[in-house]
Amino acid sequence: MVFNGAAPPPGALAYDRALLVGRFQPFHRGHLHAIRYALDAADRLLLGIGSSNRSREPENPFTAAERRSMILDSLDVDARRRVAIYDIPDVQNHIRWIGMIRDTLPDFDAVFTNDDVTARLYRREGMPVLPIPFLDRPSLSGTAIRGRMSAGLPWEDLVPAGTARAVRRVAGTG
User: How many whole angstroms separate alpha carbon 124 and alpha carbon 40?
Assistant: First the structure.
């Protein structure tokens, strides 16, 4: 939905369909905040599970299916209705990566990202790119949470309940 550069009318969403890609290793409260933020501006959100072809490694411990479960178990009914999740594998080439997304996902009219490379590539394509305000970035990062998990430190308060349940299932403790 484009409003000729003007602000959308009250109650209208600025975009029909937007893209947000993340690794979600694991899906945490900052990711949930990002989804809610994007859904405040877009009617539908295409959520890409990045590095979907990588798992069981220190930086990518969870499979794409496990991350999908974390996300879906953490979203409310309205968000689940408005979000479509897609696997986005690494292809080791930024231009090919953008082309693969364009060729496999439905059309979208905005991109939400804080990643400089992704923002630059989509701006070059003429796509509106919107940053997402971080929520408690020092604590809410996948690196910090994975570190807490590995060290046996408390981490469950940093993730939605759906993620905690999914991680316990993966670990065989829930």
Answer: 25
Instruction: Dump pLDDT digits (tens) for 91-143.
Output: 989 999 999 999 999 999 999 999 999 999 999 999 999 999 999 988 899 99
In the chain the domains, ranked by start, together with CATH numbers, are 15-171 (3.40.50.620)
Distant-in-sequence, close-in-space partners of 53: CB < 8 Å, separation ≥ 6: 64, 87, 89, 90
Token pair of 45, please?
């959100």
Give the span between the Cα atoms of 35 and 46, in whole angstroms.
10
Stated pTM of the model: 0.89
Q: How is residue 11 written in tokens? A: 């109650």
Q: Which two tokens stand for residue 41?
A: 């501006």
Coil/strand/helix, residue 108: coil
